Amino acid sequence: MRLETFRARDLGSVARSAEAIFGDDVIVLQTRSVRENGETGVEVVAAAAADVDAFREQLTPTHLPLPATRRGNRPYVIALVGPTGAGKTTTIAKLASNLHAFGSWTVGMITLDTFRVAGLEQIATYAEIAGCPLEVAYDADDAARAIAHLNAVDVLLVDTPGRSPKSGARDEEWWPILRAMRPDEIHLVVPAGVRPDVASTAYNTHVAMKPTHLLLTKLDDVPGDTGVADLAALLSLPTRWLTDGLDVPADLKPAPQRILASLGLVAGQVAT
Fold it and tell me: Which of 34, 58, 82 is the last residue of a domain?
């Protein structure tokens, strides 16, 4: 989505500048007073209404299926992938514990993160707190057994090792395991305050896994949610959840509403 910022002495002048770029299709997203060179003026952020509607549609994920319709009589599998330190394991704990995430669904966990020191201990603690069964998969056969052991649950949350663009072949060891699990959704977990170029690298690093969703974390590190919508537009994936703190499970929130609100928009509102 193309956003443009315009400044002028008065609202009428700045509106004409926006219309000169976007035409009658312009929608003003934000307006504020500014002071520059000792003079007070108006600043607006604007975009084309069609682009705003397309962004809203891109953000909005499909509804989770009913447990009764799960594929091949197996749990719905949601995997979290992303760079080291993005908060995948803590986010899984929030998803498993937050009633708003899955409602009455029963939840299980599988971890492929067998490389990180204390990683197994951390997720085991979260699983115990959430009252969720946990399995560890070291290879594709383990993954198949884990899914079979947890077949009674409705949704399986899969934790994966953090992947750095500079890491070596170690990452390739768990990719086949995840592929063998045939996840229904793969969420790319990215900190909300990351630079755009780093976010693009994170996406490119994981593109072979074909991520289906974006999950932004650590919004509490971003004052006023500045740039969050730009990041979501850059990565261009549906976004179901985000996190904005360390509290498990409270700091897990619906994503589209928060991201659109950062632009002064309301979820479901049609640009006019």
Answer: 58
